[in-house]
Write the structure tokens for this entry.
Amino acid sequence: MYFAHRNLNLQFLFPWLAGQGSFAYRGGKLTNPARFPLPARFILFVVLMLLLPAIVQADWFKQQAKIMGTEITVEFWDEDTAHAKRCAQSVFTEMHRIDALMSPYKPESELSRINQQAAKQPVKVSEEMFNLLHKSIQVAELSRGAFDITFSSVGYLYDYRQGSKPSEQQIQDSLEAIDYHHIQLDKNKRSVRFARSGVRIDLGGIAKGHAVDNGIAILKQCGIKGGLVSAGGDSRILGDRGDRPWMMGIRHPRKKQGVAVVLPLSDTAISTSGDYERYFIENGERYHHIISPRTGKSVNSSWSATVIGPDTTTSDALSTTLFVLGPKQGMQLVESLPGIDAVIIDAQGQMHYSSGLLAPEAQPDKVGQPKPIM
């Protein structure tokens, strides 16, 4: 399936790609969106890109690195290869810095220091950390606790690589420590304290988005006009990809190489949270890293949640939020937030979409109606 987003007119650029429709983004809804079977048209698009003359492709610089436990991709237009390499390296250096600051797995990180000391005394933190903690609490309040960085009070007991999970008793013993109200921020002293023992925080649902935003800021400082920075399921787009939008695919949750949705996007951020990122299966049940703050267990109402928004710090946090809330409550939240759109694939493989991503045959009063994915 193919959805269009923002103010685009692909019929003008590629008549065969746009089919019988053009794209117009007005008042949060798309009018006359194109319809065509994804595989054939999308493959043709990819083939076209591969057949473009080498001189056109030469100035698109792409580099990847493994940082923050995921693959970081930097891609942008730059006619100076040496300058492009310096800019990309600056992005990777920034990613390493944030990883060293916010990783819960590095004992010397600022986040680990908070987890070690904040239940005993206030811990003075960097301005960057304080601001991200404050943002996390704002999203927690907005979502009524669906997004909660204290999930790690139970979440750290899971080991997805080893395929191990906490016992029911361990979950119950630690569950009361999950509550963002336990995080006490002092703006004047720029410090954080936990209101009780046993509280642990994890910024995995927002830190990568923050890192991607910083990466885009670096590209802007380099004078880049069109590019992309991606960290796992979080991507932010700067401008267009030449004279056309970036074609961003949402991974099929149950087909590793499959694409459930393709979105043409420009100057925006997109984040996907899915139950296929870190998981193991035991006795037919999937245990994954997106933990319900209410139960301390993996959420099972969705396969994935994708959010399109103005920046990846926001879209990262909201994609986790919508995954936890599930399709009905998640879409209700999205529709209350200006400038935010979403696609949620539920546990039955049905796709739910917000009003800014109107499906071809849908009417405004049917927004959010589930559609099957192939």
About this structure: Confidence is low (pLDDT under 50) at residues 1-58, 360-367. DSSP finds twelve helices and 18 strands in the chain. Residues 302 and 347 are 5 Å apart (CA to CA). The longest helix spans residues 81-102.
